[in-house]
Amino acid sequence: MEEIFVPALGMAMDNAMLLEWLKQPGDTVNAGDVVAVIETDKTTLDLPAETSGVLGKHRYAANEEVPAGNTIAVVLAPGEVE
Amino acid sequence: MSNLDKSTALSLLRQMMVIRDFEETADKLCLRGKVPGGMHNSSGQEAVAVGTLSAIAKDDVIATTHRSHHHTLAKGYSAKSVMAELFTKATGISHGRGGSMHLAEVTEGHFGGNGIVGAGVGIAMGAALGIQHIGDKKIAVGFVGDGGMNTGRTWESINMASIWKLPLIILVDNNQYAVETFVGRVTGGGDLAKRASGFGLPAYNIDGQDVLEVRKYVTEARERALAGEGPTFINALTYRYYGHNVGEKGQYRTQEEIAQWRTTQDPIDKFTGVVISSGFATQAEVDELRASVRKEIDEAVAYAESSPEPEIASITQGVDSGKLGVQL
Ligand SMILES: Cc1ncc(C[n+]2csc(CCOP(=O)(O)OP(=O)(O)O)c2C)c(N)n1
Ligand SMILES: [Mg+2]
Fold first, then answer.
1. Residue A81 domain-assigned?
2. Hey, what domains does chain B have and what are their CATH numbers?
3. Cβ pairs bridging A and B (under 8 Å)
4. What residue numbers bound the domain in which A38 lies?
5. Residue B134 φ then ψ, to 5°
6. For residue B247, what is the nearest residue in chain A, using CA coordinates?
7. What is the interface pTM, i.e. ipTM, of the complex?
8. Does the residue A39 lie in any domain?
9. Which atom of ligand 1 is nearest to the CA of B175?
10. Which of A7, B12, B125, B328 could form a disulfide with B31 if both were Cys (CB 3.0 to 4.6 A apart)?
11. What does the pLDDT look like over A34-62, one tens digit per residue?
């Protein structure tokens, strides 16, 4: 199970805004697919999956603030459950 | 390799594995927001650190750079105490004052990492001058990056070490990039050893992915320094696998280049080959070693997480020699 999370970047990054989900729960994702787009105080950032599988629940909604370091969704390998 | 015995070989291999696992683990924790201020990952550069530190004595002095976890672990500090410092906990090697970039224990000859590119050689040169003045039988090593090779203070320090025959080793941890700048693009004359030899000291370009080669050159340089013959310049060619700092999304080098170094020049893979072909360990024993390292790093993380923050009341400690009575 791969956790897709908001990376803590820079000296004092606290939160990011989840701008958009590009994959929905239950969607098949391939390694490299962008799953969500976030915005930090400096930049917008694509969050790609590093592994292939099926996307789990959205743990935050679009336009919600996510604390740096927090997981926003998981990618499930065959047979895994969230 | 004639004088390489089994326990030394396994210790060199294990130390490199500790550094690799430590860095990859800490990198992930950094992205999760557990390490304040970020860090500079030294994965790929293990042989430079372990080759150097295994060839000097415990009370020799080192001064290093912003990328110093590998030097610090190779000097013999535990993964626990270094990880705790990254978490800025009271149990860290700098008592939580330093964080990733200021690992230091000056009472034990670790004169620290620092944020000023090129400063390490100057600090070590000063230490070497002190050693010579006092007449101690020890030496100092100043680490510097390829980027630091183009700073004025580094060459001023090398010049002084040369004219005063100081017991100093200048060790270039040449990972070929200064943030996004390739060394070949900014090195006038192209050859760092040749540049250094103009200052009148022995200077070598060596393979920084070969722990035994680094160890051999540093051993010889230390003997020269102790014999009063002055400093030596060693430019160890290596490669960093990760970005300049954690989370960097660089466009300045290709994935193919990184893969090429990882698959053909990896210092741990190369030395594992030596260990196995010398009959010091089987592949299964190497795997066991790696598993024991994994456990050690997991324990280091647990230790760092559960350690206390420094006490506010202790904030004036370590600010001065302790004799000025600084108070809140
Ligand atoms: C005097 C100074 N100039 C610039 C910087 C910004 N800076 C931080 S790290 C770095 C690159 C250093 O490259 P190198 O010496 O090759 O070390 P590496 O990061 O590769 O270990 C720069 C330019 C600095 N910290 N200090
Ligand atoms: Mg460099």
1. no
2. 6-305 (3.40.50.970)
3. 23
4. 2-76
5. -75, -25
6. A9
7. 0.85
8. yes
9. 20
10. A7
11. 999 999 888 899 999 999 999 999 999 99
